[in-house]
Amino acid sequence: MPTPEFPFSAVTGQEQYKLALVLVAINPAIGGVLVSGPRGTAKSTLARGLAQITAEQRKFVTLPLGASEEMLVGTLDLQKVLDRQQVEFHPGLLAKADQGILYVDEVNLLADNLVDLLLDVSASGVNRIERDGISHEHAARFILLGTMNPDEGELRPQLLDRFGLLVEIDSNYSAEERVAIVERREAFDLDPEAFAARQAGQQQQLRQRIEQATARLDQVACSAALRLDIANRCMAAAVDGMRADIVWHRAAQAHAAWQGRTEIEIEDLDAVAALVLGHRRNDDSAGGQSPPMPRRESGQEATAATADSASSGDWGSMAPVQQRTAAQSLFSVSAIEAPTGSVHRIDDFARGTGIGARGTGHARRFGRQLDWFQTLVSNRGCWPLQRLIRRRQATAQPRLHLVLLDTSASTLQNNRFADAKAVIVELAQRAYLAREQLTILGFGNQRVQTLLPRKRAPRALRQLLDGIEAGGGTPLLEVIQQAARYRDSLLRQQPGLRIDNYLVTDGKSAVALEQLTPIGQTLLIDIEDSRVKRGRGVDIARALDAIYCPLPVSPLLA
Predict the structure, then answer these.
(1) How many CA atoms, within 13 angstroms, populate the side-chain half-sphere of residue 219?
(2) Of the residues 156, 162, 207, 243, which is catalytic?
(3) CA 137 to CA 98: how far, in whole Å?
(4) In whole angstroms, what is the distance from residue 37 CA to residue 45 CA?
(5) pLDDT tens digits for 470-482?
(6) 222-226, 322-326, 441-445, 469-473: which range is least confident on average?
(7) What is the CA radius of gyration of the chain?
(8) Would you state the pLDDT for residue 226?
(9) Which of 207, 251, 524, 530 could be bridged to 272 by S-S, CB 3.0 to 4.6 A?
(10) Cβ of 79: how many Cβ atoms within 10 Å?
(11) 10 Å Cβ neighbour count for 106?
């Protein structure tokens, strides 16, 4: 007998996550659940436990991280093509998940085109295949569950919005909860069958309650006043489109049914508000990330401090001061397109690059990238194959823009700190449109800090940047060393990631140049506001093997 899964009812804490899973079990039309949180927070345990308490004891299908599009949607049955010259469909994981639960761990590491495809089928309940000479469709109604660790990258907002509910969890358990978690885990590992048997009563109660709520769902009504309340709250949150309104109504309806009512009440709206709006609201341009540092001085005090310190030449002794982002950027960063490829010939076998090369991981990867239908057609039934045609790649190389922003006091001169922020706003807007990621590290006041953790470049960044202060000295060496460590860590996790570095500084640092080492493709944007540069921007760029780009001088000096 297979070892039983850890019971859903035995998981300690994570009440919001449990509620979200129960709601989609009652009404799968909500559109699935995305769970974001660190490792060791029962994300996958609860996902697997959901199958035990659903009314039909749904099957649980896992989509592996390395899955191909063919594995997901299905493809041509090559064996039958070669043996019988018949074109037949070979079902994929979507067909297997019909009437079950499809679970995707680390969904943020899945290719965007696969996530988009998943969400399309999840919303329509039908998988339509028009590829490889096949025209086929089949039912694919399932509960979609995705989990992710935000430290390993975010999903782009268009994909986030397609998940009905979002749960953001953390590991801030109380001491009592931690003890209970360890005790229950040890009891389960010691005797899984006995532990599951002790939880059977609670599991059955949950199952029956979900069955009753599902049967009651169609009877649950919503008043016109509450529908208007949903609309007003969605407008106040500045959500895009109408999906939030629809999901909110469905989730509130499921919550009312779960509570045994046939009328939606205000408490039902409140209970699911965070689950519906958490990943859709646009009213907070900081995006819930790294709040601005508190301002330490009033405007008049800051101005006086700036004048006194600047006049004495002692920039490093200044207390941190804010400068609002400039209205327009004086500098523009252009994007670079990635190459594509298509055809390999059979001669590649001799060089170990074709699908016949033995003992190489590339051979297996290349085999999955072939357009098998076009390959078979172009070879007109000949075997061995004489010409191999590779499928065009649907997604570009993932790209991260890593900005190192000088927040030392000397950048405040002539509002150059404000100009530097405007450059970053322009860069973020380009990255947002290209669906690329952005990280900002600030270095000033003798420390390095993360101003914006790695995430899809936000559409609006100005408010976050406005709150960032500048002051103190310039820890240039420390930020370069931290950026190198960060880069190495990311490339170990995601070898295909492209990282572009932007060092935005006035070059006024006493660092020994021989201590600086290159950190990859880097653009140094020199913000010193002077026709005759007194900083060391050019020398620093040379030490880092970076491209040097001076920011145009301010109009007063032009």
Answers:
(1) 10
(2) 243
(3) 13
(4) 13
(5) 888 889 999 999 9
(6) 322-326
(7) 28
(8) 94
(9) 251
(10) 11
(11) 15
Please tell me the total number of residues recorded for the chain in this structure. Answer: 558
Residue type for position 504: V
DSSP per-residue string spanning 37-97 = --TTSSHHHHHHHHHHHSTT---EEEE-TT--HHHHH-EE-HHHHHHH----EE--HHHHT
CA–CA dist 491, 495 (Å, integer): 5
Give the pair of three-digit tokens for residue 140. Answer: 């694919």
- What is the spatial distance between Cα 155 and Cα 312, in angstroms, rounded to a whole number? 49
Q: In sequence order, which residues have a C-beta less than 8 Å from that of residue 161 and are 6 or more positions away?
A: 240, 241, 243, 279, 280
d(CA 535, CA 470): 17
pLDDT, tens digit, for every residue of 315-351? 444 556 666 766 655 555 543 333 333 333 333 333 3
Q: Identify whether 141 is a catalytic site residue.
A: no
- The pair of structure tokens assigned to 404 is 């190192």
The dihedral over CA atoms of 102, 108, 109, 115, expressed in degrees to the nearest 10, equals 50
> Would you list the DSSP string of 290-317?
SPPPPP-S-HHHHHHHHHHHHHHT-GGG
- Cβ neighbours around 341 below 10 Å, total: 9
Contact 385, 343 (CB under 8 A): no
Two tokens, residue 544? 């880092």
Instruction: Judge whether 10 and 198 are in contact, CB under 8 Å.
Output: no
Tokens (6 digits) for 116: 């988009």
8 Å CB contact between 493 and 510 = no
| Sign of the dihedral defined by the CA atoms of residues 507, 513, 516, 518, in that order | positive
Q: Is 353 left (phi over 0), alpha (psi -120 to 50) or beta?
A: alpha
Interatomic CA distance for residues 437 and 499, integer angstroms: 9
Give the pLDDT band of residue 31 (cuts 50, 70, 90). confident
Tokens for 439, please give them.
């990280």
Strand partners, 439: 402
DSSP, residue by residue, 142-175: EEEEEEE-GGG----HHHHHHSSEEEE------H
Contact (Cβ atoms closer than 8 angstroms) between residue 523 and residue 500:
yes
